[in-house]
Design a protein that fits this description.
Number of strands: 0
Strand content: under 5%
Helix content: 55-70%
Structural class: mainly alpha
Order of helices and strands: HHHHH
Distance between the termini: 46 Å
Radius of gyration: 17 Å
Largest sheet: none
């Protein structure tokens, strides 16, 4: 499948009603499940759920799903935070 391709799944409203699921739930539930199974990265799970990193992490906490990431993921989060706070992280010397 091409990177920009989008898969569409049609679910009858009666099925969503029977499962007591909203459109939001329909995106969130598989994202949480696939992340918990380590089949999606944190970023891809956020993308599937349509949530920010912080919103998705909140849901992980509510469901007691442990975050799983390595040192590279942590560094990416640190760099993202620095960019949001300070702009280009290469312009600053954070470590003496």
């Amino acid at each position: 499948m091409a990177e920009d391709a989008i898969a569409t799944l049609a679910i009858p409203q009666v099925v969503l009603d029977a499962a007591q699921m909203s459109a939001h739930d329909l995106r969130l539930e598989p994202a949480l499940t696939l992340y918990a199974q380590q089949r999606l990265s944190l970023g891809k799970a956020c993308e599937l759920a349509g949530l920010t990193l912080w919103e998705f992490r909140h849901w992980l906490g509510l469901r007691r799903i442990e975050a799983h990431y390595d040192a590279d993921d942590l560094q990416d989060e640190i760099d993202t935070y620095k960019r949001k706070m300070y702009g280009n992280v290469n312009d600053y010397n954070f470590y003496p």
